[in-house]
Amino acid sequence: MAALGAVEAAAAAAGGSLFRPLSAEDGEQRPAEIESLCMNCFRNGVTRLLLTRIPFFKEIIVSSFACGSCSWSNTEIQSAGRIQEQGVRYTLAVTSRQDMNREVVKTDCATARIPELDFEIPAFTQKGVLTTIEGIIDRAVAGLEQDQPVRRATDEEVASKIDEFIGKLRQLKEVHSPFTFIIDDPSGNSFVENPRAPHKDDALAVAHYRRSPQQAAMLGLEGKEPGEKPAEAAEDLSSEVLQFNTNCPECNAPADTNMKLVQIPHFKEVIIMATNCDSCGHRTNEVKSGGAIEPRGTRVTLRITDPSDMTRDVLKSETCSVEIPELEFELGMGALGGKFTTLEGLLKDIRDLVERNPFTLGDSSAPRRSAKLQEFIGKLHEIIEGKAEAHFIMDDPAGNSYLQNVYAPEEDPELKVERYERTFEQNEELGLNDMKTEGYESEGASGR
Prior knowledge:
The chain is built from ten helices and 25 strands. By secondary structure, it is of the alpha+beta class. Helix 2 (about 135-145) packs antiparallel against helix 4. The longest helix is centred in the last third of the chain and has 18 residues, at about 365-385. It starts with a helix and ends with a helix.
């Protein structure tokens, strides 16, 4: 708390906000220095704290300790933002040395696994870190080697087995054979770099999922009591705007969220939520489906041929992915959340998301990658202005997304809507495989 207070005092003295953008000038991002105890030689060292804002990960706290007496150093990263609505799982097929250099944000509650070696770094066994895949393996090797001298003296057999396993971990860094690297974070704040962004990376799979009650309890979130009964539904919410208290996601000041039930013509009911902060002026909105998950998934394809297509209404649920084949671009489910806007508004949100990604346009990005990204943004801008034709595809396994048919109720010649059966993997991501909707009442009665 004293360290954080020092950072707040420094920010107040500078006349700026507590969290600075990652792209801020060096003069605006001076870390606070606090004298602290070295846990290696028990003399005093210096801890440097930097509170910064990464657009993709909200706010983070980067801490670095260095001891001038024994030269021991340590770095750590902590998420200062909110826990995301869904957990996230990154699965990467490592096939080359370049993959070992991918940047990784691993929070302390994330689990890292390499199935080929049956190796796992459990949650809360390491501090959060901003590193690479090779760096995570090096940290694991260092942790296993730490107590090896004692093991060799007390249990030589166990020590030899650990030495053999350490050798296998070190061989992974040479990538003589492909292996799988998995980051599973129930908080949703971990990240694995996509070097081909904003294009799709075939070697990297990203899955968002609903946290289990055990994972929610592990994160300190309040779970639903076993005997708790759902609140009674209001009789009619179609003509009423509900308001409830919340905190601003930017400055954490008290704010109000307005919620309204809206009927979309030729579709279904949706819930629109909007938050306005009087303290910092931040505004955000989100859309949730007011109905159940549809029996089949929906794939909507629009051929953009005229600037007037930009005015079409779009409902993108949080389970919907977006694809633009002409740009080789794909936006996975969970990104941008649920939105009810126009096609132009959604494309501009995608453009802003790509421009704010620090791993592609920040100081660590390569010039060649930045040039490709600028080329992609230019092509996307041409589509928004109606200067280029393209296909806009929305794929929602839950069937809760919508793209306006301007010819309704007649058929739209440029709009194609397909219904399809979900795969097992899609049902798993939606939590449907473990959901029992038939026969549960009789089982509950027999259990009593």
